[in-house]
Amino acid sequence: MQPDSRLTLIQDWLTDELALGSPTLQSASADASFRRYFRIQAGGQSLIVMDAPPDKEDIVPYLKVSALLADCEVHVPKVHAVDLARGLILLEDLGSTHVLTRLEAGAAPGPLYSEALAALAQIQLRGAAAAAQLAPYDAAVLEREMRLMPEWFCGRHLELQLSVEEQAVIQAAEQFLIREALAQPQVFVHRDYHSRNLMVTPERSPGVIDFQDALRGPAGYDLVSILKDCYVAWPRDRVEAWVEEYRGILRARAGSAGGLIGASLREYLRWFDLIGLQRHIKVLGIFARLCWRDGKPGYLNDLPRTLEYVRETASRFPELADFSGFVTGRLVPALPAATARARQARAT
């Protein structure tokens, strides 16, 4: 279906089947998938319509994870109506103010991050049974994600021809990171728990969105997603202070938290940094693919920050010395010219 026919379909659903009159659709947001979101006014309240074309998106995972998180008493959008066949969901409107919006407006980060950490602790502690209902974040998934980096970031974006030796260095780093990820305690993982997916709401803030890809995986994954965010960066000392704050929340709520806090801050920071490296390697590939395959060049702005996370973290671990040298020697110098090429290509 073409976009206009999807809009007609949505209007017919709202008017004929849900009896909401003829509300005007206003674009609320679009994400990195094929999903779109529209805001409507109906019955004196603001609501959100999720449009997920069935040939491109499956809304069943969204509905499943939404229910699991709601059972954990996490603030997710309430589902008002669903049309599975046509890929439509009518949702509670959590507003348009992301945590990132507040940060960019100069809000103090402390309260925003304390709320985000408290909600994450709720997910990890209350979501233990729910995690068992999720697919595992296993070696195959971890490796498939990291393979996006050499293909899309190195090959397509940087236009690098990788030698056999360089490919071996990347593969060795990937296998090391997979082993480390699988050794962590396994929990409910949102997979995109960052400042653009946390909404500042009048009550029970933050509201949590974009959770449909949740898996059962490494304990440090969601924490590093918010504290080493691809859209905003903080000094290392502040990040470590928030990590310790988070461990304190878990300890206060559940004692040893079932091993989720690690034997020490040092061990937990190892979990945190290494699964963060896996995530940021993946994101380099995703952002490059979004630009070149999906026509979304806005993510080019976030590549330097993401690559810096990769460079800085790899340099911390002796086991990754060869990979660190590759990142510093080959990837970092190539990025500015590659991004300039991409912008020029998009402009023509």
Description of the structure:
The protein contains 13 helices and 9 strands. With 348 residues, it is α+β, with helices and mostly antiparallel strands. The strands form 3 sheets. It has a 5-stranded antiparallel sheet with strand order 1-2-3-5-4, with no helix packed on it. Strands 6-9 form a two-stranded antiparallel sheet. Strand 4 and strand 5 form a beta hairpin. The longest helix has 28 residues, at 265-292.
Quote the average pLDDT: 95
CATH superfamily of the largest domain: Aminoglycoside phosphotransferase (APH), C-terminal lobe
* Strand and helix order: HEEEHEEHHHHHHEEEEHHHHH
Number of helices: 13
Q: Which class best fits the helix and strand makeup?
A: alpha+beta
Q: What's the total count of β strands?
A: 9
Over the alpha carbons, how many angstroms does the gyration radius reach? 21 Å
Q: Going across the biggest sheet, name each strand in turn.
A: 1-2-3-5-4
CATH topology of the largest domain: Aminoglycoside 3'-phosphotransferase, Chain: A, domain 2
* Helix content class: 40-55%
Shape: globular
Strand content: 5-15%
Total number of domains: 2
Q: Termini distance?
A: 28 Å
CATH level 1 name of the largest domain: Alpha Beta
CATH architecture of the largest domain: Alpha-Beta Complex
* Low-pLDDT ranges: none
Question: Major sheet, described briefly?
Answer: 5 strands, antiparallel
